[in-house]
Design a protein that fits this description.
single chain, mainly alpha, 78% helix, globular
Amino acid sequence: MGVILKGANIYYSDYFGNYLVQALIERASESQLFEFYGAMEDSLPELCKDQYGSFVVHKLVELAPQEIGQAIIENLIPELVPIMQVPIV
């Protein structure tokens, strides 16, 4: 799985590639889900803003242990604060 993860980041935001990554997440063991999280941790904010990358993040949150979901939320909180401070016109 480690070899797959090293190149998987080019597929997260791809129109067809995100389906491949989601299929890998669906078939991954718990330890492999932790590897997926580690591989995408630094790019989570960008993935969540991307149309296809957000599907990959959603699949990981949906299927991963609760601690990964919590880590994803904690990783994204600093990104949400600046958005919430933008005045609504």
